[in-house]
Amino acid sequence: MKIQIDAVTLTPEENEDYLGALRLLLVSRYKLNEDVDFTVLRRSLDARKKSRIHYRFRVLAELDNGTAQRLIKAFPEVTEYREAAADNEKMPGKTQGFRVCIVGSGPAGLFCGLRLAEAGCRVMIIERGKEVSGRLADIELLEEKGLLNEESNVLFGEGGAGTYSDGKLTSRSSRPETSWFFRKLIEHGAPGEVLFDAKPHIGTDRLAAIVKNIRSRLTDIGAEFRFGVKVDDIVTAGGNVRGVKISTGEEIPADAVVLAAGHSARDTYELLAKRGVPLEAKGFAAGVRVEHPAEFINFIQYGKEALKGVLPQAEYFLAWNNRSSGLGVYSFCMCPGGAVINSSSEQGMLCTNGMSCSARNGMFSNAALVVTVAPSVFGYDPMKGIAFQRRIEEAAFREGGGGFMAPAQRLNSFLKGKSDDYLPASSYRPGIVPGNAERYLPEWIVEELKQGLRSFDNKMKGFAGPEGVLIGAETRTSSPVRILRGGDMQSTGLSGLYPAGEGSGYAGGIVSSAVDGIRVADAIIEKNSGLSGHDFEQQNYIDGEKK
C-alpha cells in the first residue's frame, strides 16, 4: 500500500543530505525498517519565520498493508496515496511518414518535434538563429562591444529565449503531458530534483547542454534542423498548408506546419496578418528590471541569522493591485544570484531580461517590475501592441545613449522623480548609465510603478532604497498577439497550420510552452494516426475540396 507523509521538516543543514536525513527520520519517528523504499514528492523552503527557516517535504512510501494502516491511524500527516491525473500518462499512437515542419526551436518547438519524431513523423525544425555555441558568441559580442546580431541573440537561436533565462520550471499545469516533459528533460541531463522541488530551476548553463542533447536525440531518430534561416512565407494550396518558403529561396514541403516562433518574432506576426491568418490582441506587461545585491535580498528575506552557503539565494514575488485604475504591478521572472541581460532583437531598440546559472551564485539578484497592459490600451489591434512595445524600446535606447547601454536609476531616486549623478555596480553588460524612466516609459506606467514600489517597500523593508537599481526597459514579458486556433489545435483560418507555445499566445514559461507543443504534436498524431504519407495527401485534397 502506498502512503503519503506530509509536513516532514528538515533544517537547512540536514537538507544538504536530505535523503539520508529523511531515512533517519522515517526510521526513528515512524519505526520503519532502515531499508524502507521511499520517494520525495515535494520539497519547499519555508522562510516565513526567520528564526525557524526549514525545508518541508512530502514523502511517498510503499509499505505492507498492516504497517501502512498503523501509521495512518497514529499520525494525522500520514494518508493513503492517491495517484494524480498527471501520473496516468496516455501516450499517442504512431504516425509514419508525415512531414511536419516546425518553425522555432524553443521549448514548444523542441518538445513538439521530439514527440512527433518518436511517433514516426518526418520532422524538420527551422530556426532563424544559430546553434547554442554560435549564439553564445554573438551574445558575448553584444555584451562586450554593444553589437547586436538581429537573428542570433538572447531571444533567437537554439532553445529559444528560455535557454538564456533562469530556467524556471514552475507550472500550475496538472496535464498528463507534464510528466512526459519532465521525464524527457531528465533523460537529457536535468537533475532529478526538478520533479519534486516546489520552485525547480535549471539555469542557463545546464539548459544549454540539455538543448544540445535533445537536438542529438532528434537527429538520431531522423529529424532535421536548419539553423540560420527564416520563414518568409507559408505555402498553401486548396485552403491547406503545403509547406514554407525560407530565406534561402527554397520551399520546404510539409503536410503540417507548427508555428512555435516565440514571443518576439514580430516579422512573423506581420507575415500572418498580411496572409489573413486570424489574430487577436492579447494583454501583456511592461516596465523595468530591478536589481539589488544578492546579500541585501538575503538579509531582507532571511534575516541576520541567514546561513551563508547553506540557504539558497533568496527569492521574492511581489504584487500590488491599484483599485482606482484596475491595473496590477508585480515582480516577474525573479533571478536570484543572476544577471540583468540585454534581450533586444532589433537595432535601435533596448529591452532587458534576467538570467542565472544553476548555482545562482552571482553577486546580484534581479526581477522584472512590470505593469499590466490591457489590449484596450492600443485599441484591440494586435499589431499596435507590438508598436507600443517598440516605442518604449526606442525611447530606452535613446535614453541609454546608444550602443545598447541601459539607462538606470536608484529606486529612491525614481520615486523622487530625479536622475542620479553616479550609480552602483551592476551585472548588466555592456553597462548602465544614469537615466530617467520617465523619459522612456508612458506616464501612466511610471505612476503605477511608483505606487507599487511603495507597497513593496512596506512588505520588504528597504526594497525601494538606494541599494536597488532600476534598469530599463522590460517589454517582452509575453506575446501581445494570439494566433487564433480551434479545438483541433489548428489555425481557425488555415488548415494544417498549428500555432504553439508562448509566441502564439497559449503559454507563458518553459513548462507551459513545452506542454503546449506536446499537445499540438498529439493533435497532429491523433488526426493522422494510421494514415500513410500518400493517404494524408489524399485526405488534405479532400478536405480542401470540401471547403
Task: Please tell me about this protein's structure.
The N and C termini lie far apart (56 Å). A hairpin with a 6-residue loop joins strand 14 and strand 15. The radius of gyration is 25 Å and the shape is globular. Helix 4 (107-118) packs parallel to helix 7 (204-220) and helix 4 (107-118) runs parallel beside helix 13. It folds into three domains: 2-82, 2-Layer Sandwich (Alpha-Beta Plaits), CATH 3.30.70.2700; 99-278 and 484-546, FAD/NAD(P)-binding domain (3-Layer(bba) Sandwich), CATH 3.50.50.60; 283-474, no CATH class. Residues 532-547 have low confidence and may be disordered. By secondary structure, the protein is an alpha+beta fold. The protein has helices at 12-15, 18-30, 65-74, 107-118, 132-145, 177-187, 204-220, 266-275, 294-302, 382-399, 411-416, 443-459, 510-528, 533-546; strands spanning 2-10, 38-46, 54-62, 78-80, 99-103, 122-127, 224-227, 231-237, 240-246, 251-253, 256-259, 279-281, 284-293, 319-321, 328-342, 352-355, 364-373, 406-410, 432-434, 469-474, 481-483, 497-499. Strands 13, 14, 15, 16, 17, 18, 19 and 20 form an eight-stranded mixed sheet that branches. It has a five-stranded parallel sheet with strand order 7-6-5-11-22, with helices on one face.
Short description:
By secondary structure, the protein is an alpha+beta fold. It has 14 helices and 22 strands.
**Please, how many domains?**
3
Structural class given helices, strands, pairing?
A: alpha+beta
Stretches with pLDDT under 50, minimum 5 residues: 532-547
Find the CATH topology of the largest domain. FAD/NAD(P)-binding domain
Describe the main β-sheet briefly. Answer: 8 strands, mixed
Determine the mean pLDDT: 92
Strand content: 15-25%
* Helix count, DSSP H or I runs of 4 or more residues: 14
Count of strand segments? 22
Shape descriptor reads globular
